[in-house]
Amino acid sequence: MSAKIIDGKAIAEKLRQQIAVDVAAFRERTGIVPHLVAVLVGDDPASAVYVRNKHSACEKNGLRSTLHKLPATTSQEELLAVVRQLNDDRDVHGILVQLPLPKHIRADVILDAVNPRKDVDCFHPINVGLLSQGRPWFLPCTPHGVQQLLIETGVPVAGAHVVVIGRSDIVGKPLALMLMQKGPGANATVTVCHSQTRNLVEIARSADILVAAIGQAEFVTPEMVKPGAVVIDVGINRVAGKLVGDVAFAGVSEIASAITPVPGGVGPMTITMLLKNTLTAAELATEGRRMKAEG
Ligand code: NAD
Q1: Which of 7, 22, 98, 181 is catalytic?
Q2: Does domain 141-267 have CATH number 1.10.3470.10?
């Protein structure tokens, strides 16, 4: 079997066109341009690329984006002061603190300080709590991107056994929460595997939908995949200057029914969902849209 390639770039572009239409309608209604501020501390080259891509995606789709660049020597207190100032700025709708932060700064302290209504990454404990209760204000960008890929590709998720390998707060854990909820692209039976899981191969092989979010190049090999399964590769690993996913693409695509490539799979979807969250944040701030959590 040769798997269908799930073209994340094309799906992301289609969704971005709709978001651009929604942004234009919002601007028309309110005269306000949704504004995302990215805070980048230090000189991590990969982070600089991510932030640049997010900026250009905003600009292309009618949102405003500002980069707040700080030196690697910035103290935790100084960064907190920047976050608080952005929280208070009515012209700023979304705040994104690019991770990783320098080692002397505690990421949890900084992320907890972001106003939850401006938390477009959906990392704040309030947003994580609301997500787990199934009444989110925002959905976390990468898991939301994965879910949208499944929906747009017509993969039946309801009742399916989804195995997520990886339990990070950014990908694995929130994705599992989202896919087990009620609703479109959800209602799955979810198993989460991690570095201490026994019988990982056997569990992975029982998946109708297998998601790899591990951060180890080509970790998922063909014997871990049930014939006909859908495989979503979240991983981004740089090997000899090339981007490689967490799935051994060549072998696994002979067995799976559908698979995401790296690059061009989940990556473009993540940024797309960030655009959506920035529009949502602007709507919350300026139109007093009632949030689901407020009943
Ligand atoms: P992380 O390092 O925070 O978490 C990795 C997870 O993998 C951990 O929960 C760990 O338990 C699990 N793991 C590690 N070794 C394992 C093993 N041998 N067996 C089973 N599980 C194991 O990483 P993360 O932030 O979740 O990112 C995972 C990957 O996804 C990385 O490659 C990252 O670059 C990529 N990523 C991509 C996007 C995107 O937009 N495409 C977004 C976020 C992360």
Answers
A1: 98
A2: no
